């Protein structure tokens, strides 16, 4: 056996070593508990370079995160993407839904019945508007009721495909809607985007402490994996009655809400979004709330948040 060969624990006799080209493939590897690990490709994941090349014409790549489920992250992603696209017809925006087990963007954006087509240049995203497109595993399911029961490696492979095999074209913004937490999908996205110029992350929360506890973990995750935090959005900060326009507090702000948390953790606060049940209804039915509800307080707040996001992205480029 050559000098420098590294043997895994519980290695069988005649083990070729983990640095060998035959690691995990030799006859001596049969039955070894480390066979799958040894047979994995060595060195950097080639998908990282593929993603970098595919997204070379995407100016801003933004992760939309939330430590807590149920804070309206997917709705906020749809709100931001529609606002960005509606504000400037020359601005090209896309949404990538990597919530593998709970894809919702096809329904929220009103394209649930569409199908993904493949060409020589890759998968074509589904267009919501002339300058707004979306890609989601929801388009690939036989039925919206189908459960996706996948382990981490298969999720990882799907995310790599979405980032490297979708023909995104030239985009100003790619918003990546993620599931709650700090697990497989998040690590995969950050890894594959590590060389592609990830602009940063927008974190969504609601005002109550039970949500903020998990959002603090999300902020810590971003810092540990070196992802710039563009800011925090406080969703459902209040309830606006569609009949009388009266504002009511739904969630108790016992610790100062997202604004106070941002001050304590020194991260930007992008703004608050009130809960408008009319927007929730539009999302359920896949209707365009931008054109149907131009007077919505949530849309006015969204426009202000988008201005701050644009400014943050501009500062990053300087």
What does this structure look like?
The radius of gyration is 22 Å and the shape is globular. Helix 3 (73-87) crosses helix 11 (297-317). With 318 residues, it is an alpha/beta fold. The strands form 2 sheets. Strands 1, 2, 5, 6, 7, 8, 9, 10 and 11 form a 9-stranded mixed beta sheet that branches. The model has no long low-confidence stretch (mean pLDDT 89). The protein has 11 helices and 11 strands. The protein has one domain: Rossmann fold, CATH 3.40.50.300. 42% of the residues are buried. The chain has helices at 35-39, 46-54, 73-87, 105-108, 152-165, 184-192, 209-224, 257-265, 277-285, 289-292, 297-317, and strands at residues 58-65, 93-97, 117-119, 122-124, 126-129, 132-136, 171-177, 200-205, 229-240, 247-248, 269-275.
Q: Summed up, what is this model?
A:
This protein is α/β, with parallel strands linked by helices.
